[in-house]
Amino acid sequence: MVIKKGTLLVAEPFMLDPNFKRSVILVCEHDSHGTTGFILNKPLDIRIDALISDFPESKAPVFIGGPVAVDSIHYLHNVGDLLDNSVEVCPGVYWGGDFEKLKFLMENDLIQDHNIRFFVGYSGWTEGQLEEEMQDPSWVLDEMDPNYLFKTKPFVLWQTVLHNKGNIYTVIAQMPDSVSLN
């Protein structure tokens, strides 16, 4: 596999970087300027309407998207046909779109909480940086399935993706978070 928009980056089990330990990242942009993605399995205990004062009441999940620009809010959703200017990342998953229209659609229950995930900050790499990390290897690549984002519980996502990848990854998925737990 090659890194491209719609690819999953799954942290190898011994990654020590606290920003990315056991994380699953959806690559939303990969070009000559670098790579942008969002961590799919680090939920925050806050509601989006608490972060944005004029946002409609919502229980849609909010996640740490990554360590870059943590003063920004991003969103992934499955309603690209409703939300103008959203970008298809892969079949069934869209990034961004008209924010004012998003608020209107959510306020009128045309977009439900289960259709969208919000992210504080993002994960980013400069040109060539992620490819260098792949040489270590720090990441395992996999294909995105919209169910990973919208149906799988975040606390089991890392294990689920590796298990579904099969072969040796099924064994890796069963490794405890701490080697002292062996």
Short description:
By secondary structure, this protein is α+β, with helices and mostly antiparallel strands.
Task: Describe the SSE topology.
Blueprint: E1 7-11, E2 24-31, E3 34-39, H1 48-51, E4 62-64, E5 68-77, E6 87-90, E7 93-95, H2 99-107, E8 116-126, H3 129-135, E9 139-143, H4 146-150, H5 154-165, H6 168-173
Parallel strand pairs: 4-8
Antiparallel strand pairs: 1-2, 1-9, 2-3, 3-8, 5-7, 5-8, 6-7
Describe the structure.
- With 182 residues, the protein is of the alpha+beta class.
- The protein has one domain: VC0467-like (3-Layer(aba) Sandwich), CATH 3.40.1740.
- The protein is built from six helices and nine strands; from the N terminus they run βββαββββαβαβααα.
- Strands 1, 2, 3, 4, 5, 6, 7, 8 and 9 form a nine-stranded mixed beta sheet that branches.
- β2 and β3 form a beta hairpin.
- It is globular.
- The mean pLDDT is 92.
Helix count, DSSP H or I runs of 4 or more residues: 6
CATH class: Alpha Beta
Which band does the percent of strand residues land in? Answer: 25-35%
Low-confidence stretches: none
CATH superfamily: VC0467-like
> How helical, in percent, are the residues?
10-25%
In angstroms, what separates the terminal alpha carbons? Answer: 31 Å
Described by the principal axes of the CA atoms, the overall outline is globular
Q: Describe the biggest sheet?
A: 9 strands, mixed
Global mean pLDDT: 92
CATH topology-level name: VC0467-like
Q: Over the alpha carbons, how many angstroms does the gyration radius reach?
A: 16 Å
The CATH architecture comes to: 3-Layer(aba) Sandwich
In total, the number of domains comes to 1
Series of H and E elements = EEEHEEEEHEHEHHH
Alpha-beta content class: alpha+beta
Number of strands: 9
